[in-house]
Amino acid sequence: MAVNLSTPNPADLRPVPGVRLGVAEAGIRKANRRDLTLIELAPGSRVAGVFTRNRFCAAPVQVCREHLAVGDIRALVINTGIANAGTGEPGLAAARGTCAATARLLGIAADQVLPFSTGVILEPLPVERLVAGLPRAQADLRADGWFAAAHAIMTTDTLAKAVSRTVEVDGRTVTITGMSKGAGMIKPNMATMLGFVACDAVVSQDLLGALVREAADLSFNSITVDGDTSTNDSFILIATGQAGNAEITAAAGAAWAALREAVIDVAVRLAQAIVRDGEGATKFMSIAVEGGTDRDECRKVGYAVAHSPLVKTAFFASDPNLGRILAAIGYAGIDDLDVSRLRVWLGNPDESVLVAEHGGRAASYVEEAGARIMAHSELTVRIDLARGSAAATVWTCDFSYDYVKINADYRS
Amino acid sequence: MAVNLSTPNPADLRPVPGVRLGVAEAGIRKANRRDLTLIELAPGSRVAGVFTRNRFCAAPVQVCREHLAVGDIRALVINTGIANAGTGEPGLAAARGTCAATARLLGIAADQVLPFSTGVILEPLPVERLVAGLPRAQADLRADGWFAAAHAIMTTDTLAKAVSRTVEVDGRTVTITGMSKGAGMIKPNMATMLGFVACDAVVSQDLLGALVREAADLSFNSITVDGDTSTNDSFILIATGQAGNAEITAAAGAAWAALREAVIDVAVRLAQAIVRDGEGATKFMSIAVEGGTDRDECRKVGYAVAHSPLVKTAFFASDPNLGRILAAIGYAGIDDLDVSRLRVWLGNPDESVLVAEHGGRAASYVEEAGARIMAHSELTVRIDLARGSAAATVWTCDFSYDYVKINADYRS
């Protein structure tokens, strides 16, 4: 039961000039399931990525890092069903074999291919079935393939996640389209979060690299369902350079500002979609922390609240449980936090109420107001640390019976 | 449903010479409930403590820190029902008032009293009812009051937690008795963990301070139910000095070794009792990490596994889910961890099986062995990081439907 999320309208997903996508049934783990996606990029495209910091990172993540270091990427291959993680040397060979086969098919070099896998971990990737499916994915390549691809990369997602928008850059219309998958690190062996955003802007490789890191920081790295970081998390930003704008080479000026804002917006919406589809989620929660001395301490507080099982179960119960929120702020790890100065508000899209100040419950707060706010499915906990001017927001979902049910019943 | 834990036998709880305990019904929050405990210490007793690092620490914790800095503690007062946390200046006044009233009653100074509160947070402590109950607690003072006190300090605990043992120190028999309360930080407004251990050894104040920190580190600071750190956590170690041994003044020699071992043993058993009584717990899990470069990184790995909702729900389901364990190890924060070298075993008191090595599932592992081990209620995850010689163990419980039910249904 996703929270305020619906399947994207195919007509809303705009093709990005220079990008074609094709899908196929390769029988990776299950029959009659589109589980293979090929993305072809026009010559001259630039690609940047960020990846999981889990030390048990999957084989394809290792290969992606190697190939991005070389550059001149021309294709991406994504399979679901098997994550190719915890697979040792044979897993690396399978990821490299995937790239080699794709390269032969497209007439490019193996290190111009980025491989991605998501699904069960600790199981071998059936690379021969994947390779056998590649020609069918190639035959399916088309500019309007985003809707089909967003479905083909799903694992336990209940809905496909894709977003598109345009933005004026240097007098040209730039198109940005992206897709993501993941039900938020909660599906143990279904390894996790993938995000792909493509635009046709002309932007230098350095700036693209900076933008993918900033966008990831503000989107996929600002969400949590249960604090578990997967082995396969990957976020890729593509710029095909076909929009014809003057190349953006400095992080300044109107063109950069417009592109930056639009890419971050798309990434945030894709990341939020993962939280909205978090298994068992009934509430979408924004933990907005302001007044910190730096962004890092705001994130610490945001994550402490967002990860607290006590806060998450209280939100599931629509219980405005201030004690749990205050306790989580208190143990977030800011040693010199002055709790007598901080203020906390609970809000939904209709109203926001001061609930805590002076180290305890706000004198003006009444339980009825808290209960009224919590009845909504979109909730905000706003926290002013009153120490500085930095801010950060973390998005999460609540913690329900269904979370335990799904994760306890699940057998690999 | 506590895991392999039962009510202590009153006859097993040995009086500690120099310590008397009394309980009373003070009506702090509920009627007909022993909710007030007074502990009187003989002159010359030494006391040391460690407290929550939560910035929202409760008023009594602040007062305890002040009074311990002065020293010469002669009494402890513990109330349940109201935690006196998140109560601002009035809360501090209530804690100080408790000490002043106790001091008048016993003919000592107010700063010779340590106050402790546990229960609902954000509510004012009814200090006048507490003070009115003190004479009845005083009238009840007796050396064999541990069993009654262990019950009177309970909040949502399903069982009282108390442990006693003796040890030879310098040819004298030293008695160590302790009690604890807490269902493991999982009861939001029922603020949390208290531990009191008393012995009659003669030991210097400096060593007592070192021992309370070491014992806390190896016991109460090595457990987790859900990662939520409370506002009131306190652990107190008392040495009345009545055993007649030569004063222990150096962290060396047989007398120190014997006392140290026995105090840590009592603290560990009291801490484990809290996990065994963790709400919704059906399994008691030891995460034993070895081969680390230092104890800190072993604890990081232990806590990453122990806090993972995915691991905890898998254990609830008796599912030997290796992927979840390996992923948690991978994101524990050891940047240069070589996953190809680490090894993981699953075990119960009867057997232990190698389940992972070389970056993936162990070749010798079969699912049947995992399932057989997981059928037990006492489980060990042993992890060899193969980087050094440090080790640390973290204890936790599994994560069940009942956890969500208890915490979602709970209303302050």
From TrEMBL, chains A, B:
GO terms for biological process: L-arginine biosynthetic process; ornithine biosynthetic process. NCBIfam families: ArgJ, PRK05388.1. This is Arginine biosynthesis bifunctional protein ArgJ. Pathway: Amino-acid biosynthesis; L-arginine biosynthesis; N(2)-acetyl-L-ornithine from L-glutamate: step 1/4; Amino-acid biosynthesis; L-arginine biosynthesis; L-ornithine and N-acetyl-L-glutamate from L-glutamate and N(2)-acetyl-L-ornithine (cyclic): step 1/1. GO terms for cellular component: cytoplasm. Its EC number is 2.3.1.35, 2.3.1.1. HAMAP family: ArgJ. It comes from the Bacteria. The record marks A191, T192 as: Cleavage. It catalyses: N(2)-acetyl-L-ornithine + L-glutamate = N-acetyl-L-glutamate + L-ornithine; L-glutamate + acetyl-CoA = N-acetyl-L-glutamate + CoA + H(+). Its main location: cytoplasm. It comes from Pseudothauera rhizosphaerae. SUPFAM superfamilies: DmpA/ArgJ-like. GO terms for molecular function: L-glutamate N-acetyltransferase activity; L-glutamate N-acetyltransferase activity, acting on acetyl-L-ornithine as donor. Keywords: Acyltransferase, Amino-acid biosynthesis, Arginine biosynthesis, Autocatalytic cleavage, Cytoplasm, Multifunctional enzyme, Transferase. Coiled coil: none annotated. Heterotetramer of two alpha and two beta chains. Belongs to the ArgJ family.
